[in-house]
Amino acid sequence: MKLSLVTPPVLTPVSLIDIKLHCKIDSGSFSDNIDENQSIAPGSHAISAGGLYTYLGTGINVLGYTAVVNLISGTNGATGTVDVKIQEADALAGPYTDWTGGAFTQVTTANDNAVQEIAYTGTKQFIRTAAKVLLAACEFGTTVIRLTATSVEDDLLTDIIDAATEYVQDVTRRYLLTQTFDYYLQEWPSENYIKIPGGNLQSITSVKWKDTDGTETTLTATTDYLVETCGEGIGRIVLPYGETWPSGTLYPSNPISIRFVAGWTTSAGIPAKIRNAIKLICADQYVNREGQVLSSFAYQENKAVMRLLYSSILWDEF
Predict the structure, then answer these.
(1) What gap in Å lies between CA 55 and CA 53, rounded to an integer?
(2) Do 176 and 168 contact (CB within 8 A), yes or no?
(3) Longest alpha-carbon distance in the chain
(4) pTM (2 d.p.)
């Protein structure tokens, strides 16, 4: 089996904050453990034109952080109202979309001069607030508070998380979070299907093959092949009824290439037993940093880790 990683995951199964909490590590003071970032600057804001969300806050990077969004209300003008919601995006420049569950309670003269907060539990890297003011000018601002818990060992802990994740992927033979691979075959199978390694198949981007002259042909989904994602199991490419694999002499080197996307889409979607196993490995590596070597056999002795992972192992051969 020959695989080539095309796009690595942008998330980790457990965050730096998760490991610090698990290992009881912090920076030593409350002020050092958090930071606060303005999204919409505080002040008196005029009525929004056309009743639209015209106040668009600054995007804040929350990847790897625990984040809480605060709406700090001042005094509303007579009959004035303020509506604020949280939006999310993969890039700082957007596009931003409304995050489900991110709408604050409308601020009126009956509940102004107060603070509301919503914890962001989404999966995007950037968030911002969007607001509209109706009927009269109102005073408010929004901030994003991040739990940073910086320490001098952040680089070490990040490396430990990466190593533990790679180890768990090796043991379970799974790709934990969204990533893209090229899978190469030397010949078409005798069966009417091709198994895709890694489990949690999300999609097949392309299936291509080259003939002996190096001419490449791209197969057409639903016509030349069907896709079975199979949930957490092994996904497959299957021939439609009455179809066969392409005929012709294949190119001598990696003639068949399948690009696919696999993995859970969010860290929260990964089963707790897998995430807990990663935390145990990270804690072991952090405490015994000089006495452990992470290898394919290192954690056979850690029965807790192996028991957590055993039922998640994919046993299919490739």
Answers:
(1) 6
(2) yes
(3) 80
(4) 0.66
What angle, rounded to 10 degrees, do the helices at 272-287 and 16-23 form?
60
- Taking the domains of the chain in order of start, what are their residue ranges? 27-147, 179-262
Amino acid type, 281: I
Q: What pLDDT is recorded for position 296?
A: 47
Residue 184's DSSP bridge partners are 2, 257
Q: Which two tokens stand for residue 273?
A: 């037993």
CA distance 112 to 104: 13
pLDDT category of residue 29 using cuts at 50, 70 and 90: low
The strands making up 193-196's β-sheet, listed across from edge to edge, are: 193-196, 235-238, 226-228
In this structure, are residues 207 and 218 in contact, taking their beta carbons and an 8 Å threshold? Answer: yes
Give Cα 220 to chain centroid, integer Å.
29
Q: What is the 3-state secondary structure (H, E, C) of 287-314?
A: HCCCCCCCCCCCCCCCHHHHHHHHCCCC
Looking at the domain 27-147, which fold is it? Jelly Rolls (2.60.120)
Which ranges in the chain belong to alpha helices (H)?
A: 16-23, 30-33, 154-172, 272-287, 303-310
Is-contact 61 127, C-beta < 8 A?
Answer: no
Residue 297 in this model has a pLDDT that exceeds 80: no
Distance CA 311, CA 296 (A): 18
The helices-and-strands tally (H runs, E runs) of the chain is: 5, 17
